[in-house]
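Researcher: We are triaging several targets before committing to wet-lab work. For this one, the compound of interest is pyridoxal-5'-phosphate. I'm pasting the protein sequence and the ligand SMILES. What I need is the predicted three-dimensional arrangement of the protein with the ligand bound, expressed as structure tokens, so it can go straight into our comparison scripts without reformatting.
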Amino acid sequence: MQYTKSMKAYEKARNVIPGGVDSPVRAFKSVGGTPLFIKKGEGAYLVDVDGNRYVDFVQSWGPLIFGHTNKVIEKAVIKAVKKGLSFGAPTKAETKLAESICSLFENIDKIRFVSSGTEAVMSAIRLARGFTCKDDIIKFEGCYHGHSDSLLVQAGSGAVTFGSPSSPGVPADLTKHTLLAKYNDIKSVKKCFENSSNIACVIVEPIAGNMGFVPADASFLEELRSLCDAHGALLIFDEVMSGFRASLKGAQGVYKTVPDLVTFGKVIGGGMPVGAFGGREEIMDKLSPDGPVYQAGTLSGNPVAMAAGLASLEQIIEDETLHVRLEAKAKRLIEGLKAEAQNVGIPLQVGAIGSMFGFFFNDNPVKNFDDALKSDTKRFAAFHQGMLQEGFYFACSQFETSFVCDAMDDEMIDECIEAAAKVFKEMV
Ligand SMILES: *Cc1c(COP(=O)(O)O)cnc(C)c1O
């Protein structure tokens, strides 16, 4: 495959956009090579500016559960566009989308829309702090919740669990309120609660997708629930990635644990910029204008974005076998990949829930961020480049989750396994 036009476009972009990209992971830094510039999507496929076609397992990092150019979403968006792009005043579409989400989840009485996952989580945390009148939060190493200040935190030095900034520009005065615990390790959470009596909330990706694909143990989530209850803290499920993807009800359709607040993004906008956070009425009513906790957005609940979200969600709700079909595809793929890797002696850890799947080049099962970091990223880079050459587009990092979409069929999956067999052989 030739990438000359992508390379040229990348050079031009680098002159005027830092790193040539508007979100760092797109730059292909951890797998080498230059990012592909995309001309268009078509169902399961991406087409780059050189005219190369790839089966796309990234799907815009999650939003496109039906694949690219879904006709129903397309039609709804075009219809909305013709009525005006934005009003800064309420529309019925917002209520309609809110109603359909609230009727799906018993623990969500009210929901507010924003324009990104980052905003959804940032706002949910402010609300949790406002509701509990406490300042500290607990998050987990390897979980990503967007790029707001309080959440760009890494383990501090020494044995303490208080975090330090993971990026310049984030004041340590802020991150000292974020305590870091280990995923799937309830003892580390208990330690955080011992270190602070000021915990407003625990925020967790119930199915972690941002350290690679790492589902929580059911018992871990249950124990988080009891710890939060015992200490008067709220439990927030960040379902920006898993929402409507892991199952119709996201992680809440997979696990029994009931969180106090839930954040959404990605699939909820069907490809348009939408985020949301919701929960019980008594919590949500603390939000401005009814309550004192301030939160706002000029383009929040944008009518075009709502139209895309509604068209996407309606299709998901109507199609009762959607997630069963998607999970069958994801499992077919990961089991095929694992078998072909095994054939040439490459250890591969795999997993899938609903339309989310992941694989680690790792000798041992991955339960947390430390385990994930022991993966062979050089092997991943070789796999990624080899698969691109074969026409399969995977997330450009070992520490990302991949997705199947409804536009994929078993033939594409089997071709992918065949191509992987070839690439694995070249890797040993
Ligand atoms: C993607 C993601 C976010 C951030 O969403 P953006 O729309 O990129 O701001 C937050 N939390 C999780 C779990 C995510 O996967």
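Researcher: Any quick observations?
Model: Residues 322-343 form the longest helix (22 residues).
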